[in-house]
Every structure is written in C-alpha cells, then in structure tokens.
Amino acid sequence: EPEVTQTPSHQVTQMGQEVILRCVPISNHLYFYWYRQILGQKVEFLVSFYNNEISEKSEIFDDQFSVERPDGSNFTLKIRSTKLEDSAMYFCAEWRAGKIYGYTFGSGTRLTVV
Amino acid sequence: KQEVTQIPAALSVPEGENLVLNCSFTDSAIYNLQWFRQDPGKGLTSLLLIQSSQREQTSGRLNASLDKSSGRSTLYIAASQPGDSATYLCAVSSGAGSYQLTFGKGTKLSVIP
Fold first, then answer.
1. What is the tens place of the pLDDT at every residue in B5-58?
2. Minimum-distance CB partner of A95 among B43, B44, B99
3. Can you give the C-alpha Rg of chain A in angstroms?
4. Which residues of B touch A (CB under 8 A)?
C-alpha cells in the first residue's frame, strides 16, 4: 500500500532556529494535513491544505507556522522561530476519497527543541 | 467544540482474552469515526473507519461499532495477542470544513503472554 513519507524522522534544533519538516504525500488526494502530538498528550490538528492553499487552521497554528507545497509534490511545515514547547511529534496526513477511502498518516518527525 | 474521550486509559489483559475499548464524543454531528493503532514513538496506523451512516466495520479480529446518536463507539478485539499491545486512538471528523480529525487520548493496551 502506498505510504506517506516524512523527513527527517528526528530533528534537534536550537531554540529560535527555523525548521522545515517535509512530507511526500500520495498523489491525487483531496486534503493534506499537519498534526502534532506533544509527548503524553492527544494528537492535535494544526492545519489543512486543499488545492494549494490553507483550508482551515487551528488556534495553535499561529504566525510562527507556515505550510507550502512548493513543487506540487512535497508538502512542508515551517516553524520560523522554534520554542521549547514546539517539541513534539509532527505528523503529515492525507484524506482520500474514492475506492481507497480514509485517512493515511506518515510515520512522523520527532522535533526536539533545546 | 468536539471532545473525544477514551476509557479506560490503560488496560492489561492475558493473551487470548476478548476485550472492548470505548470511545465517546460530545457532538453527534460527525462525518466519520476512525480507529488507529500507535506503537511507541511511531506513527498512526489506520485500523477501521466507520462512516456516519454505518453501524459497524470489521477487519479480521477487529470489530468497531458506532452509535452516533449516543456519541459512542467501541472497538472489539477478539482473541488478543501480545502483538496487539499498543495505544489505540479514536478520532472523529465533523465533516464541516476540511474533514480534520479530533482525537481522544487513547487506550494503552498490554497483552500479557
């Protein structure tokens, strides 16, 4: 079965630095998402992306965050100036309709801000 | 605002036992409900998805039911195995907007050999 690929699997960054998390979704799907999971807490919705623009975003997704699909395939999440509380697992996901229906999540990027 | 609760938070059972995991949600106007499995430090593996018009879905030893009006879903695991040990997450989509999921905190299952 096709997979959603995320890179890197683990990233350590200094507080205040910019990070870019990358995702290669399966093509021809409707919606793409970023979620995060702080250790021991619930998986939380950050942002959805449809037709090359943001469809919806949560209150977590403030001006420090941005998403892009720069080349029509890769899907990126940028955090401009990381804070200690940004340390979490970040998941890319997509929503498929049609014959194979449902959500598929990537394996995640563990971001550690020090 | 949708809230999803999963009970129990943790469960330990001997191998071979049948078990039920519970999920409840506050807003019954859902589009679908999905159960995921998460192994420690790993991503989310989709197990079963139930459309709002459906009552249940089955895959192998897993059966998920949905009672939308009462805001409840159960995941039934038959003949549990040590390999079933993981955290099981329930998530609902409202269908409004972009179909994003609201997750419960999960039930951590340990199956003892």
1. 999 999 999 999 999 999 999 999 998 999 999 998 888 999 999 999 999 999
2. B99
3. 13
4. 34, 36, 41-46, 49, 89, 91, 97-106
